[in-house]
User: Fold this.
Amino acid sequence: MTMVVTGLGAYLPGDAPLAGEPAEAARQVVDQRPVREWFDVVARLGKRGYKYLPAASQLAVAAGRRALAEAGDQPLDAADPASRAVWVGTAATAGVVHAPLDRVVRESHSDLLSPAAAPYFSVNLVAGRLSTDVAAQGITTTITTPSTAALDALTAALAAEARSRSEIALVVGVEMPAEPDSPAFDGTDSGAVALVLERAERAQARGVPSLGRLQVHRGRWQAGTATEDVRGIAAAALATQGGPEVAASTLLVSGDAEPVLDTGMLRQFLPALTVGPVSAGAVAPLAAVAAALRGTRPHLVVVAGVLGHLAAVLVLPGPTDALELP
Amino acid sequence: MRSRLAVTGTGAVTSAGATIAELWDGMLAGRPMAEQVKDPWANMPVPLLYTVATEHAVADGAAGRTGAMALRAAREALVRSTGGGLPAAPHRVGVVVGSAMGESGEHERRRAGADFQPAGAEPLFSVAAAVADGIGSRGPAVSVSNACAASVYALGLAIDMISGGECDAVVVLGAESYSRVALACFNRMGAVDPQGCRPFAADRGGTVFGEGAAALVIEPIERAAERGAPLLAEILGFGWSCDAGHPTAPDPTGGPAERALRAALAEAAMPADGIGAVVPHGTGTELNDAVEADLLRRVLGGRTGQVPVYSLKALLGHTGGAAGALAAVAAVEITNRGAIPANVDVGPIDPACSLFLDHGGRDDVRGAVLVNAYAFGGNNASVVFGRPS
Assistant:
């Protein structure tokens, strides 16, 4: 069963358009400006219902809407709400939300917490408003793996659709900038990227072109074998059935991995390699994948994330021969 | 087609003890122990917690309390499954952790200290990596944070990881430790009961959080049988749904949650008559307990008075993201032993929550064991466990 991407939406810092080059797209999301400086929630989402949500929740809704708008006419309508899924990857938002809540409790009392803000200590509510807006009564899941949260969300979405647990899925990577006393303050992402995934036959029946196909391979890297671990996961992705010729590749390297990775050696193995940054945040990897989807030739995105999290995404833009999941 | 999956190992760290055996003994003894948190910054009306003993919340290879409990539970599960090693090649073993708060407690402790340095602080959701590194697995390590249903959703992801061919075995965990922020926010919502966690009680006043971790090793049943692994239980069916409605209150009809439950039964190819016992979500909050009791009565029908229900949170408190995995390991024990302990006495039961709770403990449990898990955001999931055939 082949799953395809039929819609893509992004809200990036400064309201900038998604860069054409994956490594540059990953750099675009590194930004500490408050979201309200570049994202007008009233203009984007309307006057009521969104203004007091955490910025990450606003961005997830906005990016999801933008992706659905690209996915043709009323992409959700043909799918029963029980077959709609929302998968959100966000690794740093919880820490950003918790810091000011904790300050109130430490310095005064829990009674002074805003009753509207209190429930949002639970990071899965970032996905909640998007899920309600699109009536995703099938599956809504929040994944928080550092660095690879959005790619884990993508993998889970592809697997669920392959097993007919859903007909259409929104996959979102989202983060918001950190407070000074947040654990993420030394750098994470800001913004949101969303993809619409559905079965190729469904997209064809709706008359919607495929933006491309994605396949994810995952594993772990360790300090003593990091270069070989990255090479191995990339090789697994490149050896995918059909062996499409990958024109270029992007390696996103975290601060954890940078001291132990031999990028020179990897350049000999990975075609036309460009290196970019990744933090613990979820958005940079999905932004890179999205930029690759806007390209015209197969591309490999590899993420050597924090804490040993490792993933490779084979991106096949546009209509191509069917590529089955393993 | 989904692979037939077995549970070949389980582990647990809770306020009742540091192992599965101690958990079962605690379930038999039925003496819950909530206490005041030892946190000078816990400025809130009801700072209660079912606490894990300090010596049970440390482990070689884990820096934080949540990760330490998770790693201990994972190691116990692997000892049961394989004698201690991995059940498959390292690159083919995955780790999926359900945790709502990760190592939030660790960051809260540091923030309260004079020398807190946010720069370079480890990510909150570091538990999956800590477990993977601690057990030596090299497959995917994933963190799921669907609040109070997190570890049942983790099980759902793990099922797909094996059925889709990505992994040959997955260690599924739930883990949660004390978080000042979480407890304070629940206090602010008026959802903490000063008398303790008393699911389905007539005068229940909310929930009380607990710490804990649980682990299950899952793998294809044929593969497990070939290597002579203990077949503790089979995962017969799994179902999930989302209310897609109110952010914190459950759908009052229980319709979406019932859909998840019936999906699990459908996957198990089993009518509701096949349910022999239930480990409910049952939190002590007014709405959840009423909605869940109502939907269980609809599903069980005329057998409602015969199917024993074991309310684990009355013993351990509400362990957040770990609750589903703890319910699962309890369900595996019930399945394996054919026995279900008596419930903790929470006082008179709410007539609106009439289920078979006062069964006094039974050793004649036959049939499958159902586990429910519900969360903020209307994230619902159900799992059906049975004896491997």
